[in-house]
Amino acid sequence: MKSRFPRWLARNFSTLLLALILAVIAWVAAVTSADPNQEQIYLVPVDIIGLASNLEITSDLPDKLSLTLLAPRSILDQITKETGSIQAWMDLTGLESGVHIIPLHYQIESRFRPVRIVDIDPSTTELSLEALISKTIPIQTEVSGEPTLGYQASPPEWSHDEVTISGRASQVEQVTTVKASLNITGAEETIERNLNLLAFDEAGDIVSDVILTPSEVSVVQTITLRGGYRNMVVKVVTTGQVDDGYRQTSISVSPPNVMVFSANPADVDQLPGYVETAPLDLTGSFDDIETILGLSLPEGVSVIGDPNVLVQVGVAAMEGNLKIIRMVETIGVLPEFEATVAPDSVDVILFGPLPALDALTETDVRVVIDLTGLEVGTHQLAPEVVILPERIQAEAVSPGNLEVEISEAEEGTPTPTSTP
Does a structural domain hold residue 66? Predict the structure, then answer.
């Protein structure tokens, strides 16, 4: 019995092998139809490892690696869902400054099988590395301009006299000077300020792609008066009063300060802190004043520059209220109609300059109602106050609305003449 089985197996081996192959093919076909193979592209972020601390990348690098994978749909779905299932990187370990061709590496977690790589883009990249260096040089400080006449500047005090320049070698080596500049033009008091440092190349152009430590410096520039000079306030001297019904609203002088000088500094020191103008007479003034006045200075003291100043005085009429009564006039009434107004007079409160209010005449203020286009009937209308002087305005009218009755004119009855 035992001797027959080997002979039977030998006679039927080819048949059994064919049956096994057919079974495997059938199983693969069944699996493939249920979970077919597909291609899918994955964009994987590229990490950089091994970059030396004294080097900097100066070329553009691909930030993603494109991988085209062929695998069963279920495997591709798992890869898509799980972040980090594919990793990509560039290894820069041991590289020095210069241009290099670097391969891009990738790794797919081993549990995702079977997977076949169809395409990789890019597989390599060109990489430029540049050394990072630093150097220390003196700071070149500059003070430009001059203080106001009569003032003097002492040597400035700077917080730093050296600066360290850091960055790529090609940029750092371009820097020949680092400057801090202060402009004291027109200064009249001590200046305390923080100034930004700027790096320049040999041609005088700014080099921007470097790091300066410190990036700014502070400076104290002392400004003092010279002996015999003094900055004085100008005081305007006035006499008299403006016209009745008017008031002085403002007074100004330009310039408000002047610099005075004396060969004898004691003469300047004895001044009370201001200088006076020649007197300005305001008697009878009723309008704004603009004039040039000289300065009153003691003997031996003179003004640096123009000895005259511009004085401006504002003069305005005093304002008040006035109550008047005016008859109401109607306009726009057709000849076949007549109009009756109740009440036929109103109180008007006027506001404006007192001189203008005092000078009002009867015809300067009118109260009118325009009836143009209105039909027969009773109407409630607001009167209009017409004022000839421009600086006077009506603050209130009482009553604010009037009753106007428009009716047909009776035959033989003269129709009231409308006021034009």
Answer: yes
Sign of CA dihedral 243, 247, 249, 255: positive
Report whether the peptide linkage leading into residue 155 is cis, meaning its omega lies within 30 degrees of zero. no
Residue 387 domain boundaries: 319-408
Last residue of a domain, one of 270, 298, 317: 317
Looking from the CA of 319 toward its CB, the CA atoms found within 13 Å total 10
Report the C-alpha gap between 293 and 285 in whole angstroms.
Answer: 17
How far CA 192 is from CA of 151, 157, 219, 241, 303, in Å, comes to 17, 10, 6, 47, 29
The number of distinct structural domains making up the chain is 5
pLDDT digit string (tens) for 261-302? 998 888 888 888 889 999 999 999 988 999 999 999 888 899
Nearest-angstrom CA–CA distance, 156 and 191: 9
Regarding whether 235 and 154 lie in a shared domain, the answer is no
Does residue 57 belong to any structural domain of this protein? yes
* Prediction pTM value: 0.53
